[in-house]
Amino acid sequence: MATQATTLERPIGRSASAGVTLPAFTLWWREIVRFYRQPTRVVGVLASPLVFWLVIGSGFGTSFRSGGGPGQQHYLDYFYPGALIMIVLFTSIFTMMSVIEDRKEGFLLSVLVAPVPRTAIVLGKVMGGTTLSAIQGMIFLIFAPFAGVHLQLLSVLLVAVVVFLVSFSLTALGFAIAWPMDSSQAFHGIVNLFLIPLWLLSGALFPLAGASGWIRIIMRLNPLTYGVEGLRSLLYPGAETSFPLPTAMATLALFSLLMFGLALLMANRRSTRPAA
Amino acid sequence: MVSKVSALADAGLESDHTVASVISVENLVHRYESRTALNGVSFEVRPAELFGLLGPNGSGKTTLFRILSTLMIPTAGRALVMGCDAAQDPASLRRQIGVVFQAQSVDAKLTAYENLWHQGHLYGLRGSALKKRVEEILTRVGLADRAKERVETFSGGMQRRIELAKGLLHHPGVLLLDEPTTGLDPGARRDLWQYLQILRDEEHVSVLITTHLMEEAERCDRLAILNEGNLVALGTPAELKSEIGGDVIMLDAAHDAASLADHIRARFHVEATVLGNQVRIEREGGHRFVPDVVEAFPGEILAISVSKPALEDVFIHRTGHKFWSEEREPNSEPKKKKRR
């Protein structure tokens, strides 16, 4: 190869390897900056949790006044962990619509031609979405006292871990779904088809114990169930849950790893098809 | 790597084997599901050369650009940049190139400075060195005073300059540009080309630029002309034009261009090409031929023009059809026509 003998006195060596951390950091930071530069998004993030919880919870609470309902709670209290998971679910998945936007707007192209490992791209984008949805989930904890929850510092930390794991795994899943797509409509379609049933069957609305045969199997296989149940056991230490907390957290950690692996797999595919 | 001189390359290559090629495209083939976008294209780009890829829409130049910038792997053949294979070793290749896309890649929600700051991080630049470099490149493209403003407030020309700054931030030895002047007014277009020439002359950057505009192609050191996935010409603009014998004469036929062409061939023993309702002839001393042909076929010719060969004539000469289809005339190409 005689090709090195050209005009390379330029300090290219300096930019020889960007590693993973720096590009991942920069992509993460861009997600955050883009978020707070769009005031409507900020309002949506802060207001929607409250609206969801009050509207759905109050509605169900009066509709199904079961004497001494699930866990001897008021339904609004029962629904609280499920509402938190729903907020995290929606924010996590929908922040990854930015993958499709980045591709359309061309920003993603300039990242794809940069000497950046795909791992860094996945990590940066997924951590960006995770940060936003985890923060939103944690903001919802402000309403905890109204749901009859009084948290110790340790419980808050453990809740943060559960919220992080759920956010991370779902954002990674969102990334994997969004990566090969070229329209946000298609993305919406897939999300509505799979994710809403996933949430409905997570113990958010009705407890696992009361479900019948096959529904119960699906609920046991549903990773979101472990998020909801994990939160419930942290928020209401006395309440009956289907799994002990360590089981729930271990399952969520495993699910996070799997989803991140899936996202990596998607992003590392190189093909003969155009990238945009 | 020894430069292979392909059959087509002899138009433009003096066989100088000491000069290594910066970009080397070898028998590149690309097929989309049913369409062949590139059909065995080979050429080389030399150091510090402004190399143009000229072709109408759908000629395969964007496909070639995607392969060179590692966004897509080719169906067959090889593409090398600074000796790195685009399909086998994209990571090494990416370090060598700066890329400016036809579409906007700057983030409009971020400021000019922030866009370049993120871009620098992607190339491993950081801290005060990055800050200095961003300020330097912003000054270079004349946007230092707008550094803190969001890109969404910029004009099209200014956004293009930020794109260029992004592509050049990490001092690449090779710059790839895909129709970078799309949507720019003539002034901004001229500025961009001037800047590319400065880059070539002062920083010895090798530039590969795709275009569908003849006037831009004229500014390149060397050109590859693509048509329907095939390389139809390769060489300097002057060399390519010189292969056309003398002048180009265009006749507008009053009735049937095909029969007019037949008659002209029979009478004057010249090659005549039919292009829609026009007949095209290449001939030395075109002005002397005009009275002869007009007198020979009274009433058959509506209009006649004689011109020096332009790059479009090279395209017609090589492909037998016009660069633009009949209903889409070139919008930005003033052709010097002598109407009689």
Outline the structure in words:
Chain A has one domain (19-268). Chain A is 68% helix and 0% strand. Chain A has helices at 21-36, 39-63, 75-95, 97-105, 107-112, 118-139, 153-178, 184-200, 213-221, 223-235, 245-268. Chain A is globular, with a radius of gyration of 21 Å. The two termini of chain A are 32 Å apart. With 340 residues, chain B is of the alpha/beta class. Chain B contains eleven helices and 14 strands. In chain B, the strands form three sheets. Chain B has a six-stranded mixed β-sheet with strand order 6-7-8-3-9-10, sandwiched between helices. A four-stranded antiparallel β-sheet of chain B has the order 2-1-4-5, with helices on one face. A four-stranded antiparallel β-sheet of chain B has the order 12-13-11-14, with helices on one face. The radius of gyration of chain B is 23 Å and the shape is elongated. The chains are: A mainly alpha (276), B alpha/beta (340). The interface between A and B is large, with 47 and 58 residues.
Feature tags:
heterodimer, A: 276 residues, mainly alpha, 11 helices, globular, disordered N terminus, B: 340 residues, Rossmann fold, Alpha-Beta Plaits, 2 domains, 24% strand, elongated, disordered C terminus
How are the secondary structure elements laid out?
The complex is a heterodimer of chains A (276) and B (340).
Chain A: H1 21-36, H2 39-63, H3 75-95, H4 97-105, H5 107-112, H6 118-139, H7 153-178, H8 184-200, H9 213-221, H10 223-235, H11 245-268
Chain B: E1 23-31, E2 36-45, E3 50-54, H1 61-68, E4 76-81, E5 84-85, H2 90-96, E6 97-100, H3 112-122, H4 127-140, H5 156-168, E7 174-178, H6 186-203, E8 206-211, H7 214-217, E9 222-227, E10 230-235, H8 237-242, E11 247-253, H9 257-268, E12 272-275, E13 278-283, H10 286-296, E14 301-307, H11 311-319
Parallel strand pairs in B: 3-8, 3-9, 6-7, 7-8
Antiparallel strand pairs in B: 1-2, 1-4, 4-5, 9-10, 11-13, 11-14, 12-13
